[in-house]
Specification:
elongated; mainly alpha
Length: 127
């Protein structure tokens, strides 16, 4: 068993599961979506992205691109949350929460693609 592959797979799957946990719930209800969970999703996705930088294969390039998309979506969601909470003065409205959750849904789709690619790569490995 390769410890690097275990850590790599762990962070890819953890980023998907955390993202799913944040995404689930009423799309416009802030009670169902925790800001700390969004922060955890963002941190884990950044770690997963950093782990993907070493791979020089075509598969690695696609994994990196999906990870970059997820991080971009999550950063946008975090900036939007920060904007509506601390700068705009309007507070966390249902419309703003729906936008934040929608952005995390895009990141979750990118994470699903990463996990599917990881499974395909694992199945294609020859012993």
């Amino acid at each position: 068993m390769n410890p690097e592959k275990v850590v790599f797979g762990f962070f890819i799957v953890l980023s998907l599961t955390l993202n799913f946990g944040f995404f689930v719930g009423e799309i416009d209800d802030p009670v169902h979506h925790n800001v700390y969970e969004l922060f955890a999703v963002l941190v884990v996705n950044i770690i997963a992205t950093l782990l993907k930088f070493g791979d020089r294969s075509q598969q690695g390039a696609i994994l990196l691109s999906t990870s970059l998309v997820a991080v971009l979506q999550l950063v946008a969601a975090a900036i939007l949350w920060m904007w509506v909470e601390h700068i705009s003065g309007s507070g966390l409205t249902p419309s703003a929460m729906a936008s934040i959750v929608s952005l995390s849904g895009g990141a979750m789709l990118a994470n699903i693609i990463s996990v599917v690619l990881l499974i395909i790569e694992t199945v294609m490995l020859r012993r």
